[in-house]
Amino acid sequence: MFCQIRGSKFVRLIDPKERENLYLYDDLMRQNSSQVDVENPDLIKFPLFSNVKCYDSVVEEGQCLFIPKGWFHHVRALEPSISASIWFG
Questions:
Q1: Which residues, 6+ apart, have CB-to-CB distance to 60 below 8 Å?
Q2: Which of 6, 35, 1, 5 is nearest to 21 (CA)?
Q3: pLDDT score recorded for residue 28
Q4: Averaged confidence pLDDT in the chain
Q5: Domain segments of the chain: what residues?
Q6: What are the residues whose beta carbons fall under 8 Å from the beta carbon of 63, sequence distance 6 or more?
Q7: What's phi and psi for 18, nearest 5 deg?
Q8: What is the pTM of this model?
């Protein structure tokens, strides 16, 4: 659960079924991170990313967003902000 306490943030979610199109890093520390700039993808360098369906949202102050287990997520502050994440199982 991602909760916005102050300010607002842009959130982009990607289904884990898209794993093969995300160009994940090979090393252990970043194995769940994409090499692609998901807000401005280089589709010449990462052509399979053009197949990825992204789910975008802006989370405002006082709102919470449920992020399903295993989903890839990218978060960017739209202004000075405070947020909290709560992880379940």
A1: 4, 8
A2: 35
A3: 87
A4: 96
A5: 2-85
A6: 3, 4
A7: -85, 5
A8: 0.90
Indicate the pairing of strand 82-85 with strand 64-65.
unpaired
Q: Give the total residue count for the chain.
A: 89
Point out which residues pair with 22 in neighbouring strands. Answer: none
Cα separations (Å) of 23 from 5, 7, 29? Answer: 32, 31, 15
Which among 64, 59, 65 has a CA at the least distance from the CA of 78?
59
Mapped to the 3 state alphabet, what secondary structure does the chain carry? CEEEEECCEEEEEECHHHHHHCCECCCHHHCCCECCCCCCCCCCCCHHHHHCCEEEEEECCCCEECCCCCCEEEEEECCCCEEEECCCC
Token digits of residue 9? 């943030």
Q: Say whether pLDDT at 89 is over 80.
A: no
**pLDDT tens-place string over residues 28-69:** 888 889 999 999 999 999 999 999 999 999 999 999 999 999
